[in-house]
Every structure is written in C-alpha cells, then in structure tokens.
Amino acid sequence: MGAEQCHEIFSLSVEHLVLVISSILMACVIAIPGAILLSREPGPRRAAMAFANILQTIPSLALFGFLIPIPIIGGIGKRTAVVALVVYALLPILKNTLTGILGVDPAVRESAVAMGMTLGQVLRQVEIPLAMPTIMAGLRIATVTSVGTAVIAAAIGGGGLGVLIFRGISFNDSGQILSGAVPAAIMALLADEGLGWLERRFSQYR
After folding, report:
1. Closest CA to 45 of 86, 120, 95
2. How many Å from the N-terminal Cα to the C-terminal Cα in the chain?
3. Which of 107, 162, 185, 194 has the fewest Cβ atoms within 10 Å of its own Cβ atom?
C-alpha cells in the first residue's frame, strides 16, 4: 500500500468520522429534549414514537434518494447525508431517553419534590442522572448504526469510507473494498467499546 493510498484512507476516515459525529450530535439535540417533553405528554408520545418507527423502516438508500429533491435539506453532498443519518439516529436516542426517564421510580420523584426541588431540579438532578445508562445505551446503538449507514453517503456525494467501497465494487477490486470496510468496522468497534465503557460507568452510580 503506497503513501498516497494511505493518505486517502486516512482522509476519508476523518471525513467519515465527521459525518457520524455531526449527525449524532444533531440527533441528540433533537431527541433528548424531545424525549423529555414527550415523557410529560402521553398522547403526543404515542404518535411521535409511531412516526419515528416508520422513519426507521425506510431502507437507507431509499431515504437518501427521497431527500435529494427536497429544497434546503436535499441535494447531492454531505448535507443530505447528515440529514439522513440524523433521521436514523433519532429513534434509538429518543426511545432510550424516554424509557430511562419513565423508568425512574415515582417514589424517588416524590421524595425529591418533598425535599423542595422544582420540576427542573428534579429533571436535572434526579431523572437525567438515573436515566443516563439507558440514554448511553441508545447513543451507543445510534453511533454504531451510523458508522455503517454513513458508508452509503458516498452514493450521493457525501464522501467517507463508502467512496473506497463503491469504487472497489465498480472495478471489482476487493483490495479497495477492504480498504474502506476495515476502517469502518474498526471505527464501529471502537465506538461500541468506548460508549459501552461509559454506559457501564454511569450504571455504577445508579
């Protein structure tokens, strides 16, 4: 493997990582506050979860295709890829955050209120800390899934390691395919292990 090829693999790996991190951060900004609001509203909760489940069933390549003609968020390139990855990351983060908050023992909430805590303080100091292991589990699932789904971003000009995989498929070159697939697999394993470690750390403080 030449220096030029190594440089390309490194550049595309960084590009892939940026796609994943930016989409996960955006998904967290939407899903975590959304889950907090839905935990207080049973009616909208069912409709929101049903909608998120429907989005999750759309095949990834089809979703990329659906987004292309949409003004502002669509088109060819990284923007559309990030939007699609955000959509796929929403459900596990939203679902696990909601499960974690709703799973807090009502007696613990009542005790916190009896001690004089406001609803905001109960959320920040009681509910979120107790729900963190479950939230981290959702974040872990979303991140590992996004690493794999981001490969398809290359099909719409989103870059990342999928460039090497699609090029390898086009030229029937297994070396090119492996040069994209192996770094993506390593990235997914490292994300899984790292976030799994954080999940276990938060579980110790419950």
Report:
1. 95
2. 49
3. 107
Within 8 A by CB and 6+ apart from 132, the residues are: 100, 202
- Residue-wise burial string across 36-67, b where 16 or more C-beta atoms lie within 10 A, e elsewhere: bebbeeeeebeebbeebeeeeeeebeebbeeb
Average pLDDT, the chain: 91
In sequence order, the 6+-apart residues with CB closer than 8 A to the CB of 25 are: none
Which token pair is 140? 């872990």
The C-alpha atoms of residue 165 and residue 203 are separated, in whole angstroms, by 38
What CA–CA distance (Å, rounded) separates 19 from 186?
16
- 3-class secondary structure, 120: helix
Angstrom distance (rounded) from CA 91 to CA 49:
8
The model scores a pTM over 0.85:
yes
- What's the pLDDT tens digit per position in 123-133? 999 999 999 99
Residue pair 180/161 in contact (Cβ under 8 Å)? The answer is yes
Residues 6+ away with beta carbon under 8 Å from 61: 152, 155
Q: What are phi and psi of 2, to 5 degrees?
A: -80, 170
CA 90/CA 98 separation, integer angstroms: 12
